[in-house]
Design a protein that fits this description.
This protein is mainly α. It folds into two domains: 1-17 and 41-71 and 87-243 and 486-527, Alpha Horseshoe (Serine Threonine Protein Phosphatase 5, Tetratricopeptide repeat); 278-337 and 359-452, no CATH class. The chain has helices spanning 7-15, 42-54, 59-68, 91-107, 111-114, 117-123, 126-148, 169-186, 204-221, 227-238, 278-285, 310-313, 316-320, 345-349, 360-372, 382-401, 403-406, 415-432, 438-449, 454-464, 491-496, 498-505, and strands at residues 72-74, 252-254, 274-276, 355-358. Helix 16 packs antiparallel against helix 18 (415-432). It is globular and about 70 Å long. The relative contact order is 0.13. Mean pLDDT is 88; it is low at 1-38 and 319-343.
Amino acid sequence: MKRIFNITLIVVAGLILMFTSCKNVNFGDLNQPEHAITSTTPSALLAGATVSYGAIAGRLYSTNYSFYIQWLTQGVYDEEQRYANFQGAWAAYYTGPLANIQAALNMMKDTAYINNQEFTDVNGAPQNVYAYALILKSIIFKRITDIFGAIPMSEALDTSNITPKYDTQKQVYQQLISMLQTARDTLDENKPGCTGDIFYGGDVAKLKKLANSLLLEVALQISEVDPALAQSTFEDAANNSAGLILTPEDEAWYYFDRVAGIYNPWSRLRSSDYYFSLQFQKSMEGDTTTLDALGNKANVTSNFNTDYRIFFYVDYYGYWHFNKGLDGEDYFAFSKDNSFLQPWQELFTNPSLPLPELTSAYTWLNLAEGAARGWNTGGVTVATALQNGIIASYNSFNAHWNVVDKVMSMYGVDNAAYQTLAQTYANARVNDLASVDPLQVIGEEKWVALFPIPWKGWAEWRRTHYPAIHPAPATATFNGGRIPTRYRYPAEEINLNNDHYLQGVQDLHDPAEDQNYAHVWWDPHTN
């Protein structure tokens, strides 16, 4: 559901705590605007943190990962798709949303402040505000550690410590699990939810489902290196009475407000610089013959069926003015190569287009993987979870992007026909389980369903190596033709926190060097 309420004030309030170092001088009401914010609250800080995190933009923060997993290609500035070994950045996470979250948590240490009805009326019940902060904090720290490896976490948000230690990635994941389980078990549905909950507007039951679903994601990410902890964490969440995100109505999405200046980060890019990759296109088409520029099959998956989600991204109708509906496959005969195919333009140009944090499709596919590993999923089978995950992906995009009216109707597809297409494709992929490793099918479907959350798609691909992407040749790249498996640490860490930076580097392997082809702890692969 859309959760935009007084968002300009929320973001401003959320940033106030970033500017507290000025001398405390009382200028009274000199030039005081009538509606200026003169104080802030934990709920306002958390709301500001949520929307500012969801809107973090730029190639370095938002889109580079999509080139590594071959969702998109670059048309002009192609350093990222040629695996440039640049230094990354994380300041936008630490000095923005994480600083706001910690400021909210610090305010809540004052028991006299929180233990009164006025606090609850403004912010929600203290335990529910606290739990929302932990969930949001875990979301952001997972993203940072998956990108870099070992990171400052346990000491990172102490403003008196300018050289925080690096927690190993194993320690980070242990803290993520603890925070999410604590948040879930702290949430009280009988008390008011956090008023700064941008995802659900204070619906505590849905927030519990988010915590459990995030635990599935976290558990599977460490399944290759700590299978015991992964399984116990997964089974605890999968069988928890609070439930999981299994329908579009329970999903966590970021809604943006152009009027308030809170933009979809993709819209800040120049869309003419980006193209839908040939590999993603042909894999979704189920193409069996097209070769890429290296002579490899462009379809990098085991899918040989039409996945009609392709029509959200590739504008067949607009480019070819060809409208015969979806009765046959003849429209694909007009597809020559990727040189003129761009992603669905509205994804890039609409500043208010919502983006997902966690979808029902991803949760179902995580359940499918858990079942394939023999874990206790509460009786959910691989086939059922896979089928439900694919159909949920179709329904999620329609619920939040209105793709039937905006796109599929051009091809003569109404809501009923759309459901038939989703079911048809899902059935075909379930049938593939008889001849293809279930983990491969599930990994390939995650690759599709996670679009457009590239850092999550990149994390899944590095862990599973599905689909079987072909790297660019060494002669055409900046790092010997190795698909990046992490970002290098920010330059300021080398200069200002060198001792702990060097310890963080030692948490990497193959090689234990600060390179974009080194591997983080949860990634068991070698170069």
